[in-house]
Structure formats: structure tokens, C-alpha cells
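Repro:
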Amino acid sequence: MDEVIKLIGDPRKVDEELQAFDKTAKSLSEPSHDRVIERFSGQWIAVHTGGVRAHGASLDSVLAQLDSEGLSREQAIVRFIHDKPRTVIL
């Protein structure tokens, strides 16, 4: 067990980070997703701790905004918001 803790770190910290990421991911799912598309269509966005924290025309711009706010890139979801629905074949 000690080896696992050494690999993943403090279990409480891991749990906190997973809960924060879950909150962030849920902010991109329905019904919030429609509002995100309406507001940020054609832009890159970065979602962190449950909300859009950066947006812009380029990925570099969004990453720079995250950095300037001191937000972790690893804990952000960054994606381009298409103005037209995409077809996904599974």
C-alpha cells in the first residue's frame, strides 16, 4: 500500500482533484453545453473548476490566459467550440 501512495500521492488530495475535475467536466455536458456553444462558438475555451476561465481565437491565447491566472493546465479541459454539430461514429 505504501508503494501505491508513493505513486499517486496523498489520497485526500487525489480525491479533491478528481472531484474538481468531475465538476469541470459536468459543466460541458447538457444542458450547460448549449449555453457554452451559444456564447463561445468558433473559439477555444478552457474550463477549470466548473466554469469557463479563458476563451479566445487561438489555443496559445487560451493557454496564456490560464498561465496568467495561475490555473493549472493539467486540471483544465481545453477544447474548440464548433458552431455546427459534429457527427461521431462509434
